[in-house]
């Protein structure tokens, strides 16, 4: 009777332990699940885009270059006239249709630019990216970053990226492997920026990554305006008539048109973010836009920190994110240990059940045998 009671307790223990999941487990698991969206870049690989070099485009191109290499896409380096691939309108349309089909987006009757915009927005939506007030280049950069992060959340993705970067992650935990890969990518990105800057004749001594981007962008802009063919193309794209003007006058007129167009774009973005643009210069608009976006980001970070019980008082967005990541890492390790202990407990309980059943069976057998006598 006593052993039957032990058996009942053991069975109850197994049932209880098998349902034990730490309260934070579901949140951690949900954060590691990938979206399942195929890697479909919104700027089509191999399809040169037209237009002037904007303030964000060079930065986006250079920053996304490492991602493109890893994903096996065509490199998006700064192009020269000789490097620009000529591609037919039919091929461009075919690639856009393919991207749209993958995302379930209807682009019938849209221009290539409008089709790209619709594809970009659809992909951002599926990836859970808030694109309010963001420029085309910023949206593209966020999409690439999220897709890359999703890849780093799968063992296969981590292994593939590590192999392409030549990084040895043998024996490392998932988080340590990710950190090592990100460090290698940062180094590779800096090396590419340095290489590009050197090719453009820029002195890279003591320059940070951000300094390199700014100098590369400025140099490319100036080179574009110093090349008669490109200057003519930019003027045509902007709808600026430079007929009969000297090179310097044409450059000045094109620069003024670019400045006006940029100001209009910043004003449009600011308006979408609820900013009063009256009397604001381009720099003022940039500052206000940045402040609003950072405030929105801080709200999200604060909410996540509160859910995890993390104190981020006085921390910058980056410091808060780093602290949250550290807590999430600890939480994952705690979850892993809890599951391990649960598994061991269940194993021990099952062993006890088996032994108790064996003993009960032996006693019944002996009792039955004694009854026959």
The topology string of helices and strands comes to: HHHHHHHHHHHHH
Total beta-strand segments: 0
Give the CA-CA distance, first to last residue: 23 Å
- Classify the beta-strand content into a percent band: under 5%
What shape does the CA trace take?
elongated
* Average of the residue pLDDT scores: 75
Number of helices: 13
SS class: mainly alpha
Low-confidence stretches: 1-86
Taking Cα atoms only, what radius of gyration do you get, to the nearest Å? 30 Å
**Helix residue percentage:** over 70%
Organism: Clostridium aquiflavi
Signal peptide: 1-25
Region (Disordered): 326-373
Protein name: DUF5667 domain-containing protein
Description:
Residues 326-373 are annotated as: Disordered. It comes from Clostridium aquiflavi. The protein is built from 13 helices and no strands. The protein is mostly helical and 373 residues long. The radius of gyration is 30 Å and the shape is elongated. The model is unreliable at 1-86 (pLDDT under 50). Helix 11 runs parallel beside helix 12 (282-308).
Which features characterize this protein?
373 residues; mainly alpha; 13 helices; 71% helix; 0% strand; elongated; disordered N terminus; DUF5667 domain-containing protein; signal
Describe the structure in brief.
The protein has 13 helices and no strands.
List the helices and strands and how they pair.
Elements: H1 2-18, H2 25-32, H3 55-71, H4 89-103, H5 112-126, H6 136-152, H7 155-165, H8 174-199, H9 209-226, H10 228-238, H11 247-272, H12 282-308, H13 317-372
